Amino acid sequence: AGWFRRLLHKPKPSSAESTRSSSSSPSSSSSWSPASLPRSIRPSPVPDISAAGSARWAKSYDVCICHSAGDLELVSELVSYLEGQPESFRCFLQPRDAAPGSAVVTELCDAVQNSHTWVMLITPGFLGDPWCRYQMHQALVEAPAADGRAIPVLKDVDRRDYPKELRNLYYIYMALKESGFQRIRDTVLRYLQELCRSSVSGTE
């Protein structure tokens, strides 16, 4: 009788212990570690766009700002913002950087060709300025698929007036200046990082 009572009162293994013993089995399919993750889903390192030899230095400018004369004050603030960032973005601003005496067409084409990205500030003034539209068309000729190089920015323009030539591109809507500047900066930085990452992988 004594051995029968001891058998009835023998403590059962807790659920935590049984779970622990089953999960520690080498054949358990639920065990994994970060090291076992496929290589393809591990985050790739962020390239240093300022490093010597970076693909960033293959062109004279990081950003070409295309704008109407009436938006020069806003654009000057944008350029000061971008050039004051830790990355020290190099901006082409036509009134400041165009060579005196050069033909307007030559300067606009050179600015597009020698810049990694093009910010097009689309305002009522932009839509009515033939030189702005000319520069926009030059940018699209330079990179028909865009691939992030052309960055349309809408300000004080209804969405229905968005240029039909750019309808295949997402745009930034600048409702507030500060947030608009930040999004432009982030977009330019993302393109330059991808450019540098692609150039490094292409040489490996």
TrEMBL record:
GO cellular component terms given for this protein: cytoplasm; plasma membrane
Region spans: Disordered: 1-45
InterPro entries documented for this protein: TIR_dom, Tol-interleuk_rcpt_adapt_Tirap, Toll_tir_struct_dom_sf
One term of GO molecular function: Toll-like receptor 4 binding
Segments of skewed composition (Basic residues): 1-12
Comp. bias regions, Low complexity: 13-40
GO BP terms: positive regulation of canonical NF-kappaB signal transduction; positive regulation of chemokine (C-X-C motif) ligand 2 production; positive regulation of tumor necrosis factor production; toll-like receptor 4 signaling pathway
Top-level taxon of the source organism: Eukaryota
Residues covered by the TIR domain: 59-188
Coiled-coil ranges from the UniProt annotation: none
Full protein name: TIRAP protein
UniProt lineage: Eukaryota, Metazoa, Chordata, Craniata, Vertebrata
Name of encoding gene: Tirap
